[in-house]
């Protein structure tokens, strides 16, 4: 039976072009690799290397095909190992990811209020790209992912959670702070301090607020300090307005919370999970759907 290591060496030869370079990359000796490649040829019963040129080894057409197939097999094996290990880990906890931060912050708050889940919940704060959602679920990296769209695949379910709206905290001396609501167009040309990872909201604010400048901050503690001691407006949402971290940003009461009444100010979220994780995911989906704040 062909060993995976032999396939790795074949793929390395195709990538690096010589036995010596491939062996160096794999940290084995060239004679060891030569023996492995000859053994692989014997097992397959076909020549993989063209040895006619003196001091120069190259893949035959069949060898090239074999290396391509080997690479796919190795990728499949790595995926197999990752999926099995992730599944074992998910038996000990419920892991929830999201494409946007608001639902995750709200979920953490729900945990602090002693919501009764079947297992402990781990919130994965590194946001997931929408195009990676299905693959993450199939690799069992997360039990459930909160998405901004339904995932159309027979292996998963996407159940509606609710919507998120933005509000804006405006300096009390700004005339806009005296209004009950504003549109995105009303905020044109302003400078905002914004968390770096806001998922799909980033495209919304950049497209909808003309001439605005966004001072993105990776460090959330720095974001809090800038919010406290500057006049820059910042965004919050119906999912985060009641959080302690948002209240801290409103201190020392130099800003007014103003609603954004704009057709573009809405993102719908879904709880997306594999069908065989329904028992674990459904109570979380139901809680979030029933308790989500509807006002900004």
From TrEMBL:
Keywords for the protein's UniProt record, in alphabetical order: DNA-binding, Transcription, Transcription regulation
Sequence ranges assigned to domain HTH lysR-type in this UniProt record: 1-60
GO cellular component: protein-DNA complex
Superkingdom of origin organism: Bacteria
The keyword Transcription regulation appears for this protein: yes
Any Pfam family: HTH_1
Molecular function GO labels: DNA binding; DNA-binding transcription factor activity
InterPro entries: LysR_HTH_N, LysR_subst-bd, WH-like_DNA-bd_sf, WH_DNA-bd_sf
SUPFAM superfamilies xrefs: Periplasmic binding protein-like II, Winged helix' DNA-binding domain
Family stated for the protein in its record: Belongs to the LysR transcriptional regulatory family.
Protein name, UniProt field: LysR family transcriptional regulator
Species for this entry: Bifidobacterium bifidum
Upper taxonomic lineage: Bacteria, Bacillati, Actinomycetota, Actinomycetes, Bifidobacteriales
């Amino acid at each position: 039976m062909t060993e995976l290591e032999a396939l790795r060496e074949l793929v390395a030869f195709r990538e690096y072009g010589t036995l010596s370079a491939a062996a160096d990359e794999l940290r084995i000796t060239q004679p060891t690799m030569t023996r492995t490649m000859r053994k692989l040829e014997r097992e397959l019963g076909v020549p993989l290397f063209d040895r006619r040129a003196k001091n120069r080894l190259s893949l035959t057409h069949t060898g090239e095909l074999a290396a391509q197939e080997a690479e796919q097999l190795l990728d499949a094996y790595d995926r197999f190992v990752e999926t099995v290990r992730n599944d074992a880990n998910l038996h000990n906890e419920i892991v929830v990811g999201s494409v946007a931060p608001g639902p995750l912050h709200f979920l953490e708050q729900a945990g602090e209020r002693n919501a009764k889940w079947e297992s402990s919940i781990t919130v994965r704060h590194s946001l997931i790209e929408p195009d990676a959602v299905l693959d993450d679920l199939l690799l069992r990296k997360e039990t459930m992912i909160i998405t901004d769209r339904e995932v159309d695949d027979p292996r998963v379910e996407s159940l509606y959670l609710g919507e998120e709206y933005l509000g804006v905290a405006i300096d009390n001396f700004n005339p806009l702070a005296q209004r009950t609501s504003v549109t995105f167009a009303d905020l044109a040309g302003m400078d905002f301090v914004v968390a770096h990872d806001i998922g799909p909201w980033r495209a919304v604010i950049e497209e909808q607020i003309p001439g605005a400048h966004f001072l993105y901050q990776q460090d959330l503690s720095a974001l809090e300090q800038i919010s406290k001691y500057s006049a820059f407006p910042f965004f919050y949402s119906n999912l985060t307005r009641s959080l302690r971290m948002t209240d801290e940003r409103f201190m020392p009461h130099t800003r007014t919370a103003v609603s954004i009444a704009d057709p573009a100010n809405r993102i719908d979220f879904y709880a997306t999970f594999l069908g065989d994780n329904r028992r674990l995911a459904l109570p979380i989906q139901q809680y979030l759907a029933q308790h989500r704040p509807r006002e900004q």
